[in-house]
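User: My collaborator sent over this chain with a note saying "see what the structure looks like." That's all I know about it. Can you take a look?
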Amino acid sequence: MAGKQQQQPPYLHLAELTASQFLDIWKHYDADGNGYIEGKELDSFFQELESARKGAGVESKNANFAEKMQEFMRKYDKNADGKIELSELAQILPTEENFLLCFRQHVGSSAEFMEAWRKYDTDRSGYIEANELKGFLSDLLEKANRPYDEPKLQEYTQTILRMFDLNGDGKLCLSEMSRLLPVQENFLLKFQEVKLNSEEFNAIFAFYDKDGSGFIDENELDGLLKDLYEKHKKEMSIHQLTSYRKSIMNLSDGGKLYCKELEIVLCSEPLL
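Assistant: Without extra context I'll predict from the sequence alone. Here is the result:
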């Protein structure tokens, strides 16, 4: 059995996929980028799905491939137009990932995310209180210019609370909440591999805060990020650097990025 698992394809049948993996498969089969899988795309998708399911040890009740396609379409083609939309196919995903997938379609940019975060994380702790979450999500959706109604906002709020407040302490962490961002926008994920301990963080901040004012500006942050990536032998384009800098500066106070604010992004453990 263990040997069989090792031979499984990189993505299993859809019930075991993350939202990120799901999007990768979707983009592969929605070859013309029109937002649907249809025609030959749909045939290819079903064949890949069947192959992946067999690799995962999942057998369908119907042996006939055409019957399997019809069964699948009946279940997921809700509007019966013979095409599968992203939202229809996302229903296969586990509830948590399905929710993330839907929410990512409504989030604007990492800069907007951080701007909304700063408004609610008033003590710069890297957390917002659970009772502030609804306002945070409302702000985020408005910044992204996305329509929503009160029941939908309530659903988002309750789902996120279930997802992220695992220890029931009534606080939600920035690094966890950043999962709401589209993968390409999620600069916080990019920093996961270059997290600093408290000593390293204090040293690098002191190096760039040359006058000991307790804050650095945008240009100094630019240099800090470049050095950080070079130190860890990571590549970062000018576009990425500009995007990351802009996002992080949205945590700043009038262009002054204080130690406590940068710590939220770069430090693996909050400083005492």
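A starting point for your reply to your collaborator: The beta strands are 36-37, 84-85, 127-129, 171-173, 215-216, 257-258.
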